[in-house]
Structure formats: C-alpha cells, structure tokens
Design a protein that fits this description.
92 residues; mainly alpha; Methane Monooxygenase Hydroxylase, Chain G, domain 1; metal ion binding; DNA binding; Metal_Tscrpt_repr; Metal_Tscrpt_repr_sf
C-alpha cells in the first residue's frame, strides 16, 4: 500500500480539503467566541459537505483509474457487475 501515485483529481481534492481545513478552524473560533449555534451549524454543514465531496471524488477517481487498470477488458456479461458497483458508489 506504499505505492505513491497521483491522479489528475488529486490536486483539486487537496485544494478542497485545505479549504475545508480553514473553514473548520473558523468553526472552532466561532464556538470559542460564542457565536450563535445556527451560524456554527451552518459552517459545520459546509465543512462536512466539502469533505464528503472530496471523499466521493477520490473514490470515483480510484474506481475509474485503479480498478479499471487492474481488471482490464472484460466480456460484457462480466462487466455489468463492475459497472453497477461503480454506479452505486455515487450514493456514498
């Protein structure tokens, strides 16, 4: 698992996570300064969505590149299960 590899989406994922990290620091500051719970909850929701989207992008990219290169070309009847698996991961 120590193989180092980068996909085209990785820089964008890193940028998204760094932005989420900054927002999370802001949430901590909001809590410490006594900001209203609604404001804090809205910011937490934004952080959570950003991290979730980064995870989803990473998983989809992995499936599209790493899984595809591992399994290679498959006959149509074997391909259906892989395609269904890739489709269902969109609901993560």
């Amino acid at each position: 698992m120590s193989d180092s590899h980068t996909h085209q989406s990785h820089p964008e994922i890193a940028k998204r996570l760094k932005r989420a990290e900054g927002h999370l620091r802001s949430v901590v500051e909001m809590i410490e300064s006594g900001r209203p719970c609604l404001d804090v909850a809205q910011q937490l929701h934004a952080v959570e969505k950003a991290i979730g989207q980064a995870k989803k992008t990473l998983i989809q990219d992995h499936l599209d590149h790493c899984l595809e290169s591992t399994i290679g070309q498959l006959p149509r009847h074997q391909r259906q299960s892989i395609d269904e698996f890739k489709a269902i991961t969109k609901y993560l």
